[in-house]
Amino acid sequence: MKTSIATVSISGEFEEKLSAIARAGFDGIEIFENDFLAFDRSPAEVGQMVRDHGLAVSLFQPFRDFEGMPEPFRSRNFDRAERKFDLMTELGTDLMLICSNTSAVSLGGIDRAAADFRELGERAAKRGLRVGYEALAWGRHINDHRDAWEIVRRADHANIGLILDSFHTLARKIEVNSIRSIPGDRIFIVQLADAPLIEMDLLYWSRHFRNMPGEGDLAVTPFMQAIAATGYDGYLSLEIFNDQFRGGSPEAISRDGRRSLVYLMDQVRRVEPDMRIPVPDMPERSEVSGIAFVEFAVGDDDGRELEALLQILGFRTVARHRAKAVTLMRQGDINLVINREEKGFANASYLVHGANAYAFGLMVDDAAAAHVRALQLGSEDFRQVVGPGEMQVPAIRGVGGGIVYFLDQKSGLGQIWDAEFEPVSEANESHATVGLTRIDHLAQTTRYDEMLTWLLFYTSELSTRKTPMVDIIDPAGVVRSQVVETEDGRLRITLNGAENRNTLAGRFIAETFGSGIQHIAFETDDIFATADALARNGFKPLTISANYYDDIEARFGLDPTLVERMKLANILYDRDDAGEYFQLYSPTYGEGFFFEIVQRRGYAGYGAPNAIFRIAALKRHLRPQGMPR
Ligand code: MG
Ligand code: MG
């Protein structure tokens, strides 16, 4: 599989872009004419720089407003094309992109355009160059790849071919199966981009909101399946115009780009096994049956504080690691690991972020396969030296530099608690359990510009889907929230992207130096019974304002007795088409971390309408910013 990316897709100086692109594993780059205009090297030097990085120039673009022009524009266009051919020869690329004409002067007419391309094909052939024609979604006369193909077909010249771009086809909702009747060898290059579904002007949408395949909402996979069916085996090239990417890290954006193509082609090869594009074989996305554990890195004092809080929440210390300062606390199917080690990664994480939930384990069908797939998609491997009798649990780096472990039943990794831990016999039953059964969701907070990275991370590695993005209104700004979840809800991760440090999420990132997990939500089957048991344990829930209860009573038409019970227990409420949701929050622990307790009665969401009340209440509890820890 040959992959390429347009240099305009990423930020940085030209040379910086080249090294990031090469390191991410791409074979080529598309060069935009503007890359030269802003750069003081000759085309020959630029071409050499590209090749010195082990890359090829897959395409030179764009050449605009070419076909179907009246004189004198027509003659001038051919002269202009000859000069670009000179430049391409110096640069060392053989393919030029011509996008469909948007000029008000252009005349239209399929045969007129075909004749122009035939003549240009003759000129290109003399220099051993090729020209590809792309239908822009906003082209004046040609805005559909089917019409562009008809022009290429009628031009009937070996050096003239078609360029397909997923954005232009999918933005106009053109039937992708129309691609299947085009011969693969007449498609000169395939450009790929996704985009979020937003109603707006096509040109503006394309220039600012494109993103990597799998990051948006367009049907890029069926588009690519149709191309694979034609026998096409050339470059898969990312052409992404995105304001955020242009301000992001060249390394991260390049890695995401490469991941998006590997993921896309892995999906395509499963339905088009005979395609000519060679794609690496890798295990399927892992089925996740639950969160096996969450691990906290703590020091002595904050470790005691955390354990005390967890005891009040009904957790019991059930086991201690045989060789390490690590304890296991449990309630229902929830395993929380408290790591006080003074060496190793947990300690390093503690020193950087303070007490934090730095790791979690996913129960998958095949841990080794999940790990292999993650590495093939470009995730960073994580390994620690293990002691005698300890298991090497496959793991990768995740959000905020944290660790994601993979466990399964079949290889015995699921028995880690028996293998590495000693049961605790001493009585620690000063507090009663409160009926928490499992982890409902983990909430991870990240910088807004990394949201797409982590959405793609989860959806490409695990058998999950993403829900539409919602805006959470924090009194200090907007936090974008998007969910990754399995079909059956056994894994639910909410990703919150903070744009400014005055929001609760932004503050959490700033104060914990980018740690990932900000809250853990536990499930109960009876939130009122749990609230009563918590009260007996001395739990002080996050206090919700009385106004909230007046509002929900009216908004949902709730029974006043029920509302009164919720108000007494500080329980929040939401409802969707499928059912009801009850939520209860702890105050913050440390730098903005907290626990949530939820009961779902068929409800599918996460209580987003309540977030503003929760955030306001949490902010009242936080110490002033900038105080010593
Ligand atoms: Mg394009
Ligand atoms: Mg939550």
Question: Can you describe what's shown?
Answer:
This protein is an alpha/beta fold. The protein has three domains: 2-271, Divalent-metal-dependent TIM barrel enzymes (TIM Barrel, Alpha-Beta Barrel); 306-423, 2,3-Dihydroxybiphenyl 1,2-Dioxygenase, domain 1 (Roll), CATH 3.10.180; 436-622, 2,3-Dihydroxybiphenyl 1,2-Dioxygenase, domain 1 (Roll), CATH 3.10.180. Helix content is 35%, strand content 24%. It has 21 helices and 26 strands. The strands form three sheets. A nine-stranded mixed sheet has the order 14-15-16-13-9-12-11-10-17. Strands 18, 19, 20, 21, 22, 23, 24, 25 and 26 form a nine-stranded mixed sheet that branches. β4 (95-99), α5 (110-126) and β5 (130-134) form a beta-alpha-beta unit. The radius of gyration is 28 Å and the shape is elongated. It binds magnesium ion (MG) (2 copies). One magnesium ion binds next to β18 and β23.
Give the helix/strand layout.
Layout: E1 3-6, H1 14-23, E2 28-32, H2 33-37, H3 43-52, E3 56-63, H4 73-91, E4 95-99, H5 110-126, E5 130-134, H6 145-155, E6 160-165, H7 166-171, E7 187-192, H8 202-209, H9 220-229, E8 236-238, H10 243-246, H11 250-271, E9 288-297, H12 300-312, E10 316-321, E11 326-331, E12 334-339, H13 344-353, E13 356-364, H14 367-376, E14 381-382, E15 395-397, E16 403-407, H15 416-420, E17 421-423, E18 436-447, H16 451-461, E19 465-466, E20 470-474, E21 477-485, E22 492-498, H17 504-511, E23 517-524, H18 527-536, H19 546-556, H20 560-569, E24 572-575, E25 580-585, E26 594-601, H21 611-621
Parallel strand pairs: 1-2, 1-8, 2-3, 3-4, 4-5, 5-6, 6-7, 7-8, 9-12, 13-16, 18-22, 23-26
Antiparallel strand pairs: 9-13, 10-11, 10-17, 11-12, 14-15, 15-16, 18-23, 19-21, 20-21, 21-22, 24-25, 25-26
This protein binds magnesium ion (MG) (2 copies).
